[in-house]
Amino acid sequence: MVRRSGTDLAAAVAPPPPDAAPPPTARRTRIKNAREDRIFYALDYALLTFAFVIVIYPLIYIISSSFSDAQEVLTGRVWLLPIKPNLDGYEAVFKYRDVWLGYGNSIFYTVFGTLYNVAMTMVVAYPLARKDFIGRSPIMFLFTFTMFFHGGLIPTYLLIKSLGMIDTRAVLIIPWAIGVWNVIITRTYLQSTIPGELYEAARVDGASNTRMFWHIVLPLSGPIIAVITLFYAVNHWNTYFNALIYIRNDNLRPLQLILREILIQNSMNILDDMMADMSAEQLEQMTRREFLVALLQYSLIVVATVPVLVMYPFVQKHFVKGVMIGSIKG
Asked: Which terminus of the chain is less hemmed in, N or C, by CB atoms within 10 Å?
């Protein structure tokens, strides 16, 4: 055994001088992909880029057209960037009374309809996710059955008419309480995320089902609530068919019906009017009106799309997490 002196021990444990070179580090080795993998990645990136261009180009075109001169849009000169940029389209949108009215109605239907849908979905999915709930399988079968078979438009219309909900705000909210698909993914999420032992521990502590729902289930269901909130909100914001069938009062029409009227009915009326016998001055005025409608179309599409685009980034992380958990497990 070699015995070291105190000087040798001090030199061994002393830190290295500041000008000393750092110890050599291991070189990072990069694994090269096989030829087949490189071909696969190249094709994958090319396909994704092509899909991205297909999806993003219509949005870029609509935004560019909404900021361009109307004559340049109608003559087909706008294809990527705005030409002769101006805000005439947006000025026309905000001067159009029906747009403001439809915007307010759509916000009302989206906010209160989404709150109602999310509350009903959570209340339905919670007992169906409990293993101790008697009869959950037959009830789930009945819910799933309605996804494939339903009464149809005419029986639904007769039922809603008999309930006195035609031409009311409630007709776009109450009859559409839950979406069965949203109930399924919410139920699956609760089953895979909240263990049964947690319910048993809460039951031992004397918690009721209502208390467990408010203090255990809801705090742990943030991701899936964000997912179904986005689903329901987008559906309420974009829906127009139900309003077209059940709403006759112009003051209750959502924004999508206003957009449909401008895109379809006004354009057809303008073409019919232009074919009528008019003077040169009237034809010029009608042509200017056609330009205004063209600008109004693109500007209104942008205005109607902005709320969804603004809302999505705030729920994106919950959206991905909730969908993956609710779809992979269970």
From this structure: N
Quickly list DSSP for 47-78: HHHHHHHHHHHHHHHHHHHHHS-HHHHHTT--
- Ranked by mean pLDDT, which of 85-89, 230-234, 295-299 comes out on top? 230-234
pLDDT at 275 (0 to 100):
41
- Domains parsed from the chain with CATH numbers: 88-328 (1.10.3720.10)
- Which structure tokens are listed for 70? 């109307």
First to last CA, the chain: 65
Residue range 167-176: average pLDDT? 91
Q: Answer whether 267's CB lies under 8 Å from 286's CB.
A: no
Q: Which residues of 124-153 are buried (b: 16+ CB within 10 A; e: fewer)?
A: bbbbbbbeeeeeeeeebeebeeeeeeeeee
pTM above 0.90, yes or no: no
The mean pLDDT of 116-121, rounded to a whole number, is: 95
* Buried residues in 160-181 as b, exposed as e (16+ CB within 10 A): beeeebeebbebbbeebebbbe
